[in-house]
Amino acid sequence: MNTPMLFSLVLGASVGLVMGLTGAGGGILAVPLLVFALNMTVSEAGPIALLSVGLSAAVGAMIGFRAGAVRYRAAMVIAGTGILAAPLGVWLAQRLDTNFLGILFAVVLIWIAYKNLMEGRQKIQKTIDGDSLPCIRDEKSGRFVWTSKCASRLLFAGSFAGVLSGLLGVGGGFVMVPALQRYTDLAMKSVVATSLAIIALISLTGVVVSVSAGHFDHDVGVPFAGGSAVGMLIGQALSLRLPAKYLKIAFAIICILVACLMVGKTISS
């Protein structure tokens, strides 16, 4: 393995480690890392980040599936809308100004940082009466009852995650996790596992679209993604021994710092 590929492997492992420690949202750092370390543009780094996030999310989803936590039918339906929307994001990424994409990415990072900092103070409150939630499960089958209200909420979230995945190279976990928390009666374990399944399906489809369009650097992308999958497993093991509250605060601070660097790089260019 040559030096650039080894460097890409190490970068990917660091992203996977953060993903394992903080959840799938940690993959948001993949694009900035590629931009700063390898001098890529956001549109160039996006497909590589998607492969990294997709593989790491798939590993997490498989672990959740074995534990019976993945609502796989719902994941496939929601991801289906995201898959249909992802090409729109890819199309936009190839046509929008690189500086604009950099600023937009910084805005997303700040928003994620805010959500992580506030999560401990402002938890989403679910109504005691489960019937008032848009998406509830049938008591016998355990499957979602797909009303029009339920479908509109979750399918919109899936579509939004799909567009963002193609546009910025992000998996959309920061969209799907709050959506499943707010609109369903799933336990947090199932929310995370199902979100990982959705992210994996949307992200990997976005990679296929990018590869078919010739917008993917294999020499960087393959080792980066492989390293992220290994880092994800290590991070998940370490996360069991570290306080979740402080991990979220640390992740939020990192997001803010990276956002400032992204803005600075955009302005200087």
UniProtKB/TrEMBL annotation:
A Pfam family matched in the record: TauE
Membrane topology label: Multi-pass membrane protein
Localisation: Cell membrane; Membrane
Keyword Zinc-finger in annotation: no
GO cellular component terms given for this protein: plasma membrane
InterPro entries: TM_pro_TauE-like, TSUP/Inactive_protease-like
Regions crossing the membrane: 46-65, 72-93, 99-117, 154-179, 191-213, 220-240, 246-264
Keywords per UniProt: Cell membrane, Membrane, Transmembrane, Transmembrane helix
Keyword ATP-binding: no
Family: Belongs to the 4-toluene sulfonate uptake permease (TSUP) (TC 2.A.102) family.
PANTHER family: MEMBRANE TRANSPORTER PROTEIN MJ0441-RELATED (PTHR43701), MEMBRANE TRANSPORTER PROTEIN YJNA-RELATED (PTHR43701:SF2)
Protein name (Swiss-Prot/TrEMBL): Probable membrane transporter protein
